[in-house]
Specification:
heterodimer, A: 80 residues, 1 helix, B: alpha+beta, Ubiquitin-like (UB roll), FAD/NAD(P)-binding domain, 6 domains, 23 helices, elongated
């Protein structure tokens, strides 16, 4: 179980969070390009650092963006 | 009795009585079940999995492969417990497993004779024909013959719990290395947790006659225990097994508390550093008959003699590859008065053992090839040691085969988990003490709790260069699964030569012991067969749990009503008083129907429906999600969230609204009420309340942070009661409103704030039932006051409260969509016939994806209404729509299916809703509704979804 650095609540257990998937630039709401469709259906899944969203449902109810290394599960974000 | 009158760590002043297969036996506090059985001369305690061979107690720890029993106590029975892991308790009933009618006269023992027939891959190759044979004949037969104990069919009456803890340093294991590490960490001021699986601290020290700091090992353990117990920063837990390491330094452990009120506690311990001092496991010698009762690991022999003061036999053969250990084992046997008839060094070859239910003779060949037959009743054997580094490997680190120590070793760790002592191959006492100390100092320096001393670490102890070699193919490598050398060789020969494949093909290393005594031997066999080094063979993946953990412990106290919190609406007690029948709906306990006298549900629901359609009813709407949206950009925000246009929505009006997902499919429906210029209240369905709230927050916080908007979930703040029926406006008037409720002043789809008498309210003129309806919201604390007043004033029109059943029938009559049935994540607004809601003038979530060709294609499944053609045949629920009748084989091509089917009390005929391919263009067609489940087929006619008051006149009355 991960220990997630919430910028508002500090280090908290993963069980308090809902995973929000990789952070991605929102395509233009009208964009019908293949890129826009790919961004929806082919989420990026790199080996290494990944910017992703977490929703702190059992805490501050904030959506936070963190960088997690998908190999080691270490968060690269500093709480200080 | 084989119990000595003195010595050992047992309390002879007290006697505990237990039974084994109905025979009453005695032991003492301090005994494990294993030692108590041995003290009662009971070696033969089990039959093996496949061949039903007699099995005894081979080890003295969690590695025990053979001695599995079922233990029954006040809480029920628990199968497959190792006798070596169960502390003796008074009144325990122990029974053997996998033997009928009894251990001694097991019918299936005949399997042992045909072991060639049951070799690896036997099942895969043999039971292939006929096609139906497996399910009907073979599987039941094999299941009866193979396997372990049976599960207690009664509900578990024991209590379980889950707890959490955090510490600086967590030490796993309390042998020499663990205790010396814990002492350093604790005395340096770190919050320290020490976990020991056994009920006594000390690990291997309890079977040792060596001296530490001028005292006996056992006294040193007591000293260390006293020193640790005095410190307030130390938590010392015995009978607590650390069974897994997880991300970010989380260790999960399961405690079996001494007091019997709680059977197990699951601990989640977050440590900053972990010192793994879990020791090592002795490796058996693989030779024919190495599984017979009376054949034991040398370390277990020493432990039973010295810790439990139990004699194990009259004359013993010692076959231990390490010289020091060999001498120590002989010394222990001498202490016990057991005659040592032969001490074998690893030049000799063990050929086989003899004996029916217990060891009677060891046959061996000396270095000159001469055959010896040595009668004996105990064989103490050892072919080396395997470090217990499982927790280290749980995080994905592999162990490498080290030639010097002849074992799988963890690599040098740079934290946060450090294997020490036996767990990294250090065998000698001095080395273990030093290793624990050095690592503890290193960890304290890392935590910046004292300066770095840089003590040298002990070196792993080299294994003896010579080991006992196997003579025949029939020796057991894995005793729990009856896997022999021949089985492993066969797997290699048939191409299952990768370790993972060998494991699955032969079952080597599976089961409750997960190959603790067998894996290293198995790897050596694989290597030998393939002429490769053991290092190239690798190992299978280590996963938690290290040793079986009961499901009860993992579940904890979260059973029955404790599993999830029950949400009750503010009207719950009022409804209960009226005899309401409740049902769970998501997390909610929601009113289902309100029976009167001895009404059946159908009668009650029919009465409720008619009352709403003809006069007046009221229903709880408090479970709907309610989100308060405020701010200068509130309108822009909502306009992007919902696909319909409402930029011109006047203050005080309400609009039905549809929310799409990013991929263009319908996500949820609800209403938007404009309370002020920059102040809206939106509702979400009960089922989606949480996900809509979460999604809106994501949009506000992450996607459009530039919008100045504030969201507040206010669902629990309001009690919401809808009054519905032709007399709803009259009732509202009777409730003494301080605002104009006339038909023109308060039209359909509007919101008014004010008071009903003294009650502060918001009233929404919206309807799910299709009748004239007002949803009265009042602060949750006033729920009872509102309900009482509505019932009192409504009595004039014979108001009836109604529940979910009636709510559902009324919405089906109106063709309103519902989450989970019609909104199932695969529907576009067009599919649902809600085209007119979709704005083409604005940007909103899902718009781009809604334009994809397949979502715009002709002939998609459309939402339609259906009635039985003859007007009275009931339509079976969940039926499939087909153009043709079923053929002789009960098959028919489907073109759609039903989402709802009820008998409409209002129309007094069966009606249904469903999805039909190209349904919008098929009005008036007649189809079959087939239900193979109900065994019914009915002719149905396709029509519009709304079966009642299609023009909506009743809403505006």
């Amino acid at each position: 179980m991960l220990l997630i650095p919430c910028p508002y609540c500090g280090l908290r257990d993963e069980s308090e969070f809902v995973y929000g998937g990789p952070a991605r630039a929102l395509p233009d709401m009208d964009a019908q390009t293949p890129e826009a469709q790919h961004s929806l259906y082919r989420p990026i899944n790199p080996r290494g650092p990944l910017r992703e969203l977490w929703y702190h449902s059992g805490g501050c109810e904030c959506w936070i963006t963190l960088t997690r290394n998908t190999i080691t599960h270490e968060f690269e974000d500093d709480l200080s | 009795m084989s119990r000595f009158s003195i010595g050992g760590l047992i309390d002879r002043d007290k006697t505990l009585t237990f039974t084994f297969d109905g025979v009453t036996m005695q032991g003492h506090p301090g005994d494990m079940l294993a030692s108590a059985l041995l003290a009662n001369d009971r070696h033969f305690v089990a039959r093996s999995l496949k061949y039903h061979r007699p099995r005894g107690i081979m080890s003295a720890g969690l590695e025990e492969p053979s001695a599995l029993v079922t233990v029954t106590d006040a809480f029920g029975s628990m199968p497959n417990l190792k006798v070596t892991e169960v502390p003796l308790r008074d009144g325990m009933q122990v029974s053997s497993q996998n033997a009928h009618p009894s251990l001694e006269r097991d019918r299936a023992a005949v399997f042992g004779l045909g072991s060639k027939m049951l070799s690896a891959g036997f099942y895969y190759k043999t039971f292939k024909w006929p096609k139906t044979g497996w399910a009907k004949t073979y599987a039941p037969l094999i299941r009866r013959a193979a396997g372990h104990g049976g599960i207690d069919p009664e509900p578990d009456r024991a209590l379980y719990d889950k707890r959490r803890m955090a510490c600086d340093v967590l030490v796993v294991g309390s042998g020499a290395a663990g205790l010396s590490a814990a002492l350093i960490a604790a005395q340096s001021g770190a919050t320290t947790v020490l976990l020991e699986q056994d009920h006594a601290l000390g690990g291997a020290l309890l079977g040792s006659m060596e001296q530490i700091e001028g005292m006996s090992a056992v006294d040193w353990v007591q000293d260390a225990r006293a020193a640790l117990s005095q410190l307030s920063n130390v938590t010392l837990k015995t009978r607590t097994l650390a069974f897994g390491q997880y991300d970010h330094c989380l260790i999960q452990a399961v405690e079996a508390p001494d007091e019997m009120t709680t059977k197990a506690i699951l601990w989640k311990i977050r440590a900053r550093r972990i010192i793994l001092a879990s020791g090592a496991i002795e490796r058996p010698v693989v030779f024919a008959g190495n599984d017979r009762p009376g054949v034991m690991l040398a370390s277990a022999v020493r432990l039973y003699i010295r810790r439990f003061s139990v004699g194990l036999g009259k004359c013993a053969v010692v076959a231990v590859s390490d010289v020091e250990e060999r001498n120590d084992t002989v010394a222990a046997l001498n202490e016990a008065g057991t005659k040592v008839v032969a001490v074998l060094d690893s030049d000799v070859q063990l050929v086989k053992t003899k004996g029916r239910h217990h060891l009677k003779m060891v046959i061996w060949r000396d270095s000159k090839g001469r055959r010896h037959r040595t009668p004996c009743d105990l064989l103490a054997m050892s072919n080396g040691w395997s470090p217990t580094a499982h927790l280290f490997a749980h995080m994905g680190h592999s162990l490498r085969f080290d030639v010097r120590t002849h074992s799988l070793l963890p690599s040098d760790s740079d934290g946060p988990l450090y294997p020490v002592g036996g767990a990294r191959g250090v065998r000698d006492l001095v080395g273990c003490l030093q290793d624990g100390k050095a690592v503890a100092h290193h960890v304290m320096a890392e935590l910046e709790m004292h300066k770095h001393l840089n003590l040298p670490r002990a070196m792993p102890t080299p294994a003896p260069t010579k080991r006992f070699q196997s003579a025949t193919q029939t020796g057991f490598v894995d005793l729990q699964n009856d896997v022999t050398r021949a089985d492993i060789a066969q797997a290699q020969a048939e191409g299952y030569d990768d370790v993972e494949l060998t494991k699955r093909y032969t079952t080597l290393g599976m089961g409750t012991d997960q190959g603790k005594t067998s894996w290293t031997n198995g790897i050596l066999e694989i290597a030998a067969f393939g002429n490769q080094t053991a290092g190239n063979v690798g190992h299978t993946t280590y996963r938690p749990p290290y040793s079986p953990v009961s499901i009860g412990a993992l579940v904890g106290a979260e059973v029955d009503t404790e599993m999830i919190p029950i949400h009750r609406t503010p009207f719950h007690t009022d409804f209960a008083r009226l005899g309401c029948v409740f049902q769970t709906s998501g997390h909610w306990l929601y009113s289902r129907y309100f029976p009167q006298a001895d009404e059946t549900m159908t009668e009650a629901v029919t009465r409720e429906c008619k009352a709403v359609r003809q006069s007046l009813g009221c229903v709880d709407m408090s479970t709907l999600g309610k989100i308060d949206v405020q701010g200068p950009d509130a309108l822009t925000f909502l306009s992007r969230m919902y696909c319909n246009a409402f930029a011109k929505l006047p203050i005080g009006r309400v609009r039905y609204a549809l929310m799409l997902r990013e991929d263009g499919y319908v996500f949820d429906d609800g209403t938007i009420a404009r309370l002020a210029k920059d102040h809206f209240l939106i509702t979400a369905t009960t089922a989606n309340a949480a996900s809509v709230w979460r999604y809106m927050q994501k949009c506000a916080q992450i996607d459009w942070p530039d919008l100045d908007v504030t969201l507040t979930s206010v669902r629990d703040h309001w009690a919401s009661l809808a009054i519905a029926g032709p007399n709803a406006r009259d009732l509202l008037a009777a409730l003494d409103p301080d605002f104009d409720i006339g038909r023109d002043a308060f039209p359909f789809a509007a919101v008014r704030q004010g008071h009903l008498g003294a009650l502060p309210v918001r009233v929404f003129s919206v309807s799910f039932s299709g009748e004239l309806s007002f949803e009265i919201n009042t602060p949750a604390g006033f729920a009872t006051a509102l309900f009482d007043r509505v019932l009192d004033a409504g009595a004039k029109w014979n108001i009836v409260p109604y529940g979910l059943e009636t709510l559902d029938i009324l919405r089906i009559e109106k063709g309103h969509i519902s989450v989970g049935t019609e909104i199932d994540g695969r529907r576009t607004p067009h599919d649902l016939g809600l085209d007119q809601l979709v704005s083409s003038q604005k940007h909103y979530v899902g718009r781009a994806m809604l334009e994809r060709p397949n979502l715009k294609a002709q002939g998609r499944a459309h939402f339609v209404g259906l009635r039985s053609e003859d007007g009275h045949s009931p339509i079976p629920p969940a039926a499939h729509l087909c153009e043709a009748g079923m053929d002789s084989q009960g098959m028919a091509q489907t073109c759609g299916y039903l989402t709802a089917a009820v008998h409409s009390p209002t129309l007094d005929q069966p009606i249904a809703l469903g999805f039909l391919d190209n349904g919008h263009a098929r009005m008036g067609e007649t189809l079959w509704a087939h239900s193979p489940v109900a065994g019914k087929s009915v002719r149905v006619r396709v029509g519009p979804v709304c079966a009642y008051d299609p023009r909506g006149d009743r809403l505006h009355a």
